[in-house]
Write a structure and sequence with these properties.
By secondary structure, the protein is an alpha/beta fold. The protein folds into 2 domains: about 150 residues, Ribosomal Protein L4, Chain: A; about 50 residues, no CATH class. Helix content is about 30%, strand content about 15%. The chain has 7 helices and 6 strands. A 6-stranded mixed sheet has the order 2-1-3-6-4-5. Helix 5 links the parallel strand 4 and strand 5. It is elongated, with a radius of gyration of 26 Å.
Length: about 210
C-alpha cells in the first residue's frame, strides 16, 4: 500500500511511502471506535459539578404547616427535596471520576482502525517534513491552502514537537497540530482531513510494531 508524498505546496515530490497494512489496511470496526471515543470523552469531564443537599440549603427551619388536618402529607422543613428550592437527594459531588478503563491493545487497535478509515475514504495525505524559521500564521495558512484542505477540520501530525509549526498553526481555524505519540482515535474521527508527515509515519510504525 503506497501513497504519494506531497510538498507543502501540494505538488508531488516524485516519492512515495509504503503504508503498513496493520495500521492503514484494517476493516472498519464501529464498536472499537465507539469504546475509544467514549473513553476519551469521559476522561475530559472534570467531575467538579456540585448540588446542595438538604443539610446545605439555607432556609427557615420553622414548621411550615400543622401536622394534621391539612389533608396532605406531613412537612416539617422548606429544605425538603420535595419543595422548590429544597436540597437535592444524592446530588453530584466534586472530584467525581468519570474515567473508563480500556485495554491498551483495544485502544491501539481502535486508533489503527480510525487511520484505516481515513485511508479508505481518501481523507489521508502524506506531506514532506517541514518547519518554519519563526512562528508565522500566514505561512501555515499557505500550507493549508497548498494542500487544498481548507474545507472541514484538518489534523496535522508530526513525528516530533516543532515549536514554530505548533505556534504557527494554533490560531488557524479548523486546523490542529499534534505529535504522533499524542494521536488518539477521537481526534482522527473528528477531523475531515488527516495530514501525516513522513516522520509521523515512522513514529506510527514504531508504536504499532
Amino acid at each position: 500500500m503506497k501513497l504519494d508524498v506531497l510538498s507543502i505546496s501540494g505538488k508531488s515530490t516524485g516519492r512515495s511511502i509504503d503504508l503498513p497494512e496493520n495500521i492503514f489496511g484494517l476493516e472498519k470496526n464501529d464498536h472499537l471506535l465507539y469504546l475509544a471515543v467514549k473513553q476519551y470523552l469521559a476522561a475530559q469531564r472534570q467531575g467538579t459539578h456540585k448540588a446542595k443537599e438538604k443539610g446545605e440549603v439555607k432556609a427557615s427551619t420553622r414548621k411550615i404547616k400543622k401536622q394534621k388536618g391539612t389533608g396532605t402529607a406531613r412537612a416539617g422543613s422548606l429544605k425538603s427535596p420535595i419543595f422548590r428550592g429544597g436540597g437535592r437527594i444524592f446530588g453530584p459531588r466534586p472530584d467525581r471520576n468519570y474515567k473508563i478503563k480500556l485495554n491498551k491493545k483495544v485502544k491501539s487497535l481502535a486508533r489503527a482502525t480510525a487511520l484505516s478509515g481515513k485511508m479508505a475514504d481518501g481523507e489521508l495525505k502524506i506531506v514532506e517534513d517541514f518547519t518554519f524559521d519563526q512562528p508565522k500564521t500566514k505561512e501555515f495558512i499557505n500550507v493549508v491552502n497548498g494542500l487544498d484542505v481548507g474545507a472541514g477540520k484538518s489534523l496535522f501530525v508530526f513525528g516530533d514537537y516543532d515549536k514554530n509549526v505548533v505556534m504557527s498553526g494554533r490560531n488557524v481555524p479548523n486546523a490542529r497540530v499534534v505529535n504522533a505519540k499524542d494521536l488518539n482515535t477521537y481526534e482522527i474521527l473528528n477531523s475531515k482531513n488527516l495530514i501525516l508527515s513522513e516522520s509521523a509515519i515512522d513514529k506510527l510504525k514504531e508504536a504499532f510494531a
